[in-house]
């Protein structure tokens, strides 16, 4: 019996498995036959370089492009926020997932691809995961299966909001240094549309309720454009319980996403670091109780909660306000341009309010 079973070899699951591998026996169950293939823009802050091992970040082709800021379009107005240096990197998300899964395997994790966990049952001395005819037992499990997957369902951790996310890749070189965002309540309710320069390609996308590939295509006039790919996936937003006896959740399955952008790669990886510490202690002390695993939730909340909470409040305000009120806010934001230098892609609220969060 393994000490830990991780459900899902997305970036968070594979990273968590690799962090735990030195201290315990780890098994990873992934439903896909090969890692990767997730619909994701891969826009991440430089924090990724501090979090992941150098040899992963330095993988040729992983960082495709970098940007210095964002141009925001709203009710016919424009606001540009820009840093002197790099504000965010555009990474090849597919390659990241593959490299992290290889890394976990190289550290001794038992990777089982093509294994979809359908059932979770917690016994007094173990947790059993059912996948078709096979079942896998371990001392504890980590649900890293993405938005509202099997472990989250088991503990009733339903995301308060489940938005749709869409990406469409055009064979259109774009080496500009700004992402563009459109806030349009009719075309992307509760979200926004975007255009991201990826260097060799351009990405068009949207998140919100009811966004569709056809709708994004129409908004950007992509009708006759040659597309290199298009994909969709859910984006969970909100706060949920992230532990139970013998089980914890991390990444999208734990709703560890930024409420203002849906981005979850950095938050999920930071939470995985907290998870690995608590799982290490649980295995060492043979204590898989809720009381022990609740320390994980305390740990990740110390880092992420303040910005998530502020972002959730902002989301509610945005949903409630009318056009003219939002337009006034946009003008006020324009007058806050002096704060641009302090802009933090992951922790905007803590940083502006003078906090010191982050990795
Ligand atoms: C359109 C779109 C654009 C986005 N853009 C960005 C961005 O620019 N920057 C950013 O930071 N974030 C972005 N995100 C969010 C980001 O993709 C997620 O936060 C991130 O993928 C979370 O990683 P994860 O490992 O938690 O989950 P996932 O990447 O969803 O991985 C979960 C893995 O678990 C597997 N799995 C699921 N259920 C089971 C099961 N029952 N049994 C076995 N395996 C299972 C899946 O196959 C998958 O491999 C975007 C999301 C979308 C939809």
Report the sheet with the most strands, covering strand number, pairing sense and barrel closure: 8 strands, mixed
Overall mean pLDDT:
92
Number of domains: 1
Number of helices: 10
Radius of gyration: 20 Å
Explained architecture:
There is one protein chain. Helix content is 33%, strand content 30%. The chain is of the alpha/beta class and 359 residues long. It has one domain (2-352): FAD/NAD(P)-binding domain. The strands form 3 sheets. Strands 1, 2, 8, 9, 10, 11, 17 and 18 form an 8-stranded mixed β-sheet that branches. Strands 6-5-13-14-15-12-16 form a 7-stranded mixed β-sheet, sandwiched between helices. It has a 3-stranded antiparallel β-sheet with strand order 3-7-4. Helix 1 (11-20) runs parallel beside helix 7 (265-285). It is globular. The two termini are 33 Å apart. It binds flavin-adenine dinucleotide. Flavin-adenine dinucleotide binds at residues 7-13, 29-32, 38-44, 116-117, 144-146, 149-150, 165-167, 205, 233, 235, 251-253, 257, 262-266, 268.
Q: Main traits of this protein?
A:
alpha/beta; FAD/NAD(P)-binding domain; eight-stranded mixed beta sheet; seven-stranded mixed beta sheet; 10 helices; 33% helix; globular; binds flavin-adenine dinucleotide
Per-chain topology:
Elements: E1 2-7, H1 11-20, E2 26-30, E3 43-44, H2 47-51, H3 54-57, E4 63-67, E5 69-74, E6 77-82, E7 88-91, H4 93-106, E8 110-113, E9 119-122, E10 127-131, E11 134-143, H5 150-155, E12 161-170, E13 178-183, E14 189-197, E15 202-209, H6 213-220, E16 227-237, E17 243-244, E18 247-249, H7 265-285, H8 290-320, H9 323-335, H10 348-352
Parallel strand pairs: 1-2, 1-11, 2-8, 5-13, 11-18
Antiparallel strand pairs: 3-7, 4-7, 5-6, 9-10, 10-11, 12-15, 12-16, 13-14, 14-15, 17-18
Flavin-adenine dinucleotide binds next to helix 1, strand 2, strand 3, strand 12 and strand 16.
